[in-house]
Amino acid sequence: xxxxxxxxxxxxxxxxxxxxxxxxxxxxxxxxxxxxxxxxxxxxxxxxxxxxxxxxxxxxxxxxxxxxxxxxxxxxxxxxxxxxxxxxxxxxxxxxxxxxxxxxxxxxxxxxxxxxxxxxxxxxxxxxxxxxxxxxxxxxxxxxxxxxxxxxxxxxxxxx
Length: 160
Known about the structure:
Layout: H1 8-17, E1 25-28, H2 35-41, E2 44-48, H3 55-60, E3 65-67, H4 77-84, E4 89-92, E5 106-109, H5 114-123, H6 126-135, H7 142-157
Parallel strand pairs: 1-2, 3-4, 4-5
Helix pairs in contact: 1-5
């Protein structure tokens, strides 16, 4: 979602601040208020809502995922989706994000220092990003986690 608390202003600042001409920013999902128009004005391609079945195609064409909440989000689902699809993540150092995003699978920055993110993107090397992507270990999916927890409960509940 493109909204204030999800970092829409940071995304607009990032896209407007990057000087490289060979980089495109795309946004998939719902936008609140006038954030879609502001994003487009900053050069972001706004696709709007997508069908979850399209996620593999979207992720296959993504070199760097951007997750920019400005509030203490405990663990944004999109971070886990990027990692499970092997997409390095550029994210704010907020909430539970640092539990998942490290120097081996992305780059973290303080929301008050968007210039760090701009410098990271301007200096990004596609070969390095792809190397990072190929070495990223998968996380447990929500379905796998649910099955694991269910097994633990069943073992605890079964007699003897």
